[in-house]
Amino acid sequence: MISKATIIRSLPYVLKTIDIPGLGKKYQGKVRDFYIKNGKRILITTDRQSAFDVILGHIPFKGAVLNLLSAFWFEETKDIVPNHMISVPDPNVMITRDCTPIPVEMIVRGYISGVTKTSIWYSYERGEQLIYGIPFPDGLKKNQKLPNPVITPTTHPLAGSTVHDERLTREQIIKQKIVPKKLYEQMERAALALFARGTRICERRGLILVDTKYEFGMYKGKLTLIDEIHTPDSSRFWTKESYDRIFHTDEKGEAPNQRSSDARTQTSGGGKFGSGEPDNFDKEFLRLWYAQRGYRGEGSPPKMPTELVIALARRYIAVYEKITGRKFRAFSYPINQRIIQALTT
Question: In whole angstroms, how large is the CA radius of gyration of the chain?
């Protein structure tokens, strides 16, 4: 595992943004800078750390992990739906097809969980049972596995927009013609197939793919997977061992006390189902840290302490190595010139 000293040395030089000569106008999303030239979209994944739709800080090596892990998953899933990846000339860079984005994020959830206001658990514990147009029964516990994965779509604002993601229902998307019905149905099928593939691969690595988001675009009339896939930013992962240990699952994957008292009355602690958080390898660790301090996206966020930055860097690298089976190759910062050279020579 990468050393604490290496992460600390890198902190002053993390990739916050980058200007590439000769590529024209720079665009910025939450985490990526990108340029569009000759029908290609050049994505540079920075070390910016976002949560609650806010940039909270910067994490060494994070950009490379996201980029390389996405490249792994694009290869593993290209038989399900075409994706935008062309090449990876640098650990932080991906050359992609310039697709026309579809303004809907497809969020697939296999478990009822989460701390953000768009999560189904956030609504459910407050008494809602019709969420994203989907009915949920009484008595569900936090972190309980759903009978089948569900899709909870949200709006996807353009890069650089200050508008936050908003809930949508399937019916709203089709009725308001945000996406044509046949295309949306194709997106649903692709999203569920991608989630099933991701679930199987993660299971082999001792991980549970809890939930994730997929973004799609159109390229030459074809639905195309864009942005990133199954990364610690776009997905949540639990270790299967910790989930089984905390929630006492039986061989069928069902918890013996799932039908006990309503989770909305339970608090953390002990070993009851819904009463603890499994070990995770994603930025839910960060969200929980902020939520415990009363921050969910409004007002000024608390500053990320160095120990939190170190813990996040290690988690990002660990999930890359666990999923891919490859060792992450640490590099020396700063990396701006390395990226510029990769894109201009």
Answer: 20
Q: What mean pLDDT comes out for the span 137-164?
A: 80
Which residues, listed in sequence order, are joined to residue 44 by a DSSP beta bridge? Answer: 33, 93
- pLDDT at position 246: 86
Whole-prediction pTM? 0.87
Distance in angstroms (rounded) separating the CA atoms of residues 94 and 68: 9
- Judged against a pLDDT cut of 60, whether residue 253 lies above it is answered with no
Q: Please name each of the domains of the chain with its CATH number.
A: 4-344 (3.30.470.20)
Query: Higher pLDDT residue, 93 or 2?
Result: 93
| 62-66: Cβ within 8 A, 24+ apart | 62/312, 62/313, 62/316, 63/15, 63/31, 63/91, 63/92, 64/91, 64/92, 64/328, 64/331, 65/231, 65/232, 65/316, 65/317, 65/319, 65/320, 65/328, 66/31, 66/228, 66/231, 66/232, 66/233, 66/316
